[in-house]
User: Fold these one by one.
Assistant:
Number 1:
Amino acid sequence: MTLAFPAGLWLLTLLPVVVAAHLFFHEKRSIFVASLMFWDSGDPREQHRFRLRAVLSMNLLLQVAAVTTLAAALSQPELAGATTSSRDVVICIDTSASTLARHDDGTRFDTIRAAASRFAADHRESARVVVAFSGKPRVVGSFAPGDGGAEEAIAAIAPDHGGTDLGAALAFAEALLPSVDGTVHIFTDGSDGVDPGVIDNDRHVVHVVGARSDGVTDNVAIVAADVSPGSGGAPTRFFARIENLGSAQYEGELIVEADGNELIRRPLIVEAEASQTILLEVPVATFEGASFLLTGEDLLNVDNVAYVSASRIAPTSIVLVTRGNPFLESALSALPGATVTVRTLYTPAIDADIVVLDRRDGTAVPYGRILAVDSRLPGIHDPARLERADGESLLASDTHPVAEGVETSAAFFADLWTVEPAPGRRPIFTSGSRLAAFSLDRDDLRVVSLNFDVTRTNLVLSDAFPRLLFNAADWLLEGIERPWTVRTGDTVPSSTGGYVDTRYTGFAPADDGLLAVNLFDPSESDIRPAMAAGAGDTIERSAPPRCLWPWLAATAALLLVIDTLLWSRSR
Amino acid sequence: MTRAVEFDTTLFDAEFFSVVRGARLPVRPRDAVRAGIRAVRRLGESLEFAELRPYQPGDDLRLVDWNAFRRLDRVLVRRYQAERSHDLVVLLDTSASMGVPAGRFHRARRLAGAVAVMGAQRNDRVTLITFDTVSRLSVVHSRRDTNATGVLATLSALRSTGQTDLVESLVAAGERVRRGSTLVVLSDLLSPTAIESPLSRLQRNHVRTLFVHVWAAADRTPDLRSVATPIDVETGDETAFLGSRPQLEEHARRFDHHVEATAERVRAAEGEFVSIPLSDPFSQNVLDVARPAGAAW
């Protein structure tokens, strides 16, 4: 319990005043009796008790209690809210033909269904979406927290004769998750030979639970991993949480590597159906990434490897010069760390990491990192219009406008688009014999040109489009020194000593003034440093603290009412 | 000229007279001349003729019946029946303690009035004496007033003040009470009751005594609902009394012992002791006083 306004306890200094006033104004109550012949007042202890009770009347006790309760109410005590760790869960159940293989106790699918049902029941506090997949995934049902219908829905799923496509299931499941604060659990017999890389994504935690012919569903997984590079000589911290989902004790080794060099190798024992959190501190020089590896025997080892980047996402300032293109604007805004500024006219004064020119037909063309869209516009091909007037023709002879009416599809682009840095123009992809997109890297100029009209293709409706933009931006930004910045939720080391009293709702004083926060939003005004949480980690959510002062104030009022009633009755 | 005598009609209301008329005092058989009249026959002292007897030396010549001498030629002397009514003395405690609780003095005055009216209706000579520290002769009932309105008027005007001294009051009353009288004492008995000596004197004087103890439940078990300082209404003394259960039990035990001891002393002097709790109705109180167990006064 915490006190939001500890100064309220100063009200307790009124207690001596109340007692003194009571003693000063205390009226000795007396009653006239016919005679004292039979009254026994000889016992000194009894007389002492009599005098004590005459002074310590019920009224005084009630008044003291009321003042104390009032002081407690004024100090606004709060009970810390219960910490919950729930997140959205997508349960993918493999219904492929291979799950029909039988073992002693039934089919593989029986095992999968039982494990999924048990899992769904164990995660009732989370919102769950059940997905059945073999070739094409489909949503079986969506269930709110506390809804017990997920188990029934799982029980109704039957295997079909399709193949197994874990990648499609994972993409489908991730599209269902509204944020990174979610997990995907794939219940499969794990026999499709899918590329493990598809599981090693950077958005959501993916658990794959195997169901093999022997009916064993045991699996050990690295469910969370993170690295906190040390600074100022401090050691680097490696964090990993290993979860044993099976019924047998897991014995193996945990290996931690930094940039391919083994740093740590330690034995690891995880009890059945238990998890273990490991925090290691090792002084390490600069490195880019660390990998965690479990070496013990595991029926499903695809999730025994985790890779963590030691670098943070740097901010990217993007200026979109357009007369209005919601597809492009929304796709650019979804880029990690991107800050998109929309302008209708480009001027050389604009400072941006990337300038995106959408159907630009105007004046100067920036000289730097350019993403040009719909290059039927002449400007980008006219060297005279470049800001850098070196007279060199950059693109004039290399343009290959896309023919109008070109048809594209998400599947077509998804596997095709990658950006490779090159000193000159490089085709990104073609449509027929024509160059649909290309890149150019010459001196300080880097260009990615999309030579088709994004408003006249269904490409922008698929996830291939933001992926293309992400790869393009990643390539365009290569070599640019960008300052570090902070995203919401990042842990920020404070050089000024940090804030104080940030556990209270309201204004939080900092060294250089006050920070204004939304007083009506407990979560927003809670400006405590957030725990560093990697993508997919379970994020602990604290319920808002329970305010006790209304109850205390009501109790104080009740005490005063009782005091008044007693006083009036004694008159 | 008749002086108008008025009494408090709220104290002595219709119910009072209804109850009193239904409860007549008993008659002492040996003193009764005829039913309903109590008279002591003494010859030669009253005006009612009784008989003639022969003259004896020393007889008052004024008593010689000269008509009988002329007719019978014998000297006869008239003898008269000495008719004197019975004395009923009501000794009422008017100390301040009788005013606590509030209804005690009211009830005691009504009881005293009931005794007076019943005595008057029996042709008794009723005397009301009040006492606190000292006794005071308040009123003597006129035999012509069968409703004892003078006594009732006096009772109406009484207030409960002063302290109680029962012993001294009995001594003083004993000097006023004539031989053969009946003394009715109405008191809360909340004072020392070492009354053996005055009772013995009354007994020797053939005075019949009836002690009427008017008591309230609070006399036995004080009603203390909250912490307060008990103050003696007569003396102003204070005490520390918490009202714990052992204290209350000891209080009740002492009260019982005091009352029982007083009753024993009264009975030892051939007197009667009547307990009148205020919780009983007034009609029951009157019946208890009019016919105390095993005695007729």
Number 2:
Amino acid sequence: MKNCFREGAITPDFIANSISHHQVKTTIGAHQIFLGQVRADVIEDKEVVAIDYSAHEEMANKIFHDIREMTFSKFDLTCMHIYHSKGIVKTGEICLFVFVSSKHRKMVMEAIDYVVEEIKANAPVFGKELFEDDSFVWKENK
Amino acid sequence: MKIEVEYYGMIAERLNLKSESLEFVSEENIRSFFENKYPTLKNLSYKIAVNNELTETVDTSLESIKIALLPPFAGG
């Protein structure tokens, strides 16, 4: 099973490299990228400075694999990648990178929405929102 | 039977425990089993995974059973 987790933030360099790796795949006519970024939410007058992500990694990787299979069966895609952070990701940094590619644009636009919603609902990933004074709250997807 | 249990996120923090081995009697309901052992779980929201599948049914014919208590998801 592929490991979709990356320690810490997903860097713009990593994303740029991933894009350049696809330039040899010339049947692709459209890419769609989703980037999740850590937001500086204000909760009870305190501002979030980072999220500390943890996960049931074995199960999450299996879920990512299942989402991938489902997405390929629903949409006519050339390729697709999911990367999720674990550990500390500061506000303004990227914690989720989803990349789908296909011949045409319509497919990738629908597919990206499906993949992101599935990840949010089904991947056993947990997030501790950290404040400057070392206190925290547990994040929960709505 | 022996079960290997892992606690995640808020559950691990509240119980101050990441994993343990427990003796599970197969007739028991898995959720009540944990809530009797740790009453604080009654006030928390969580899902149960058995061998990486979300379910509350424990197939006691399996050779090894890994249970995970999963608080609300926050990925993405």
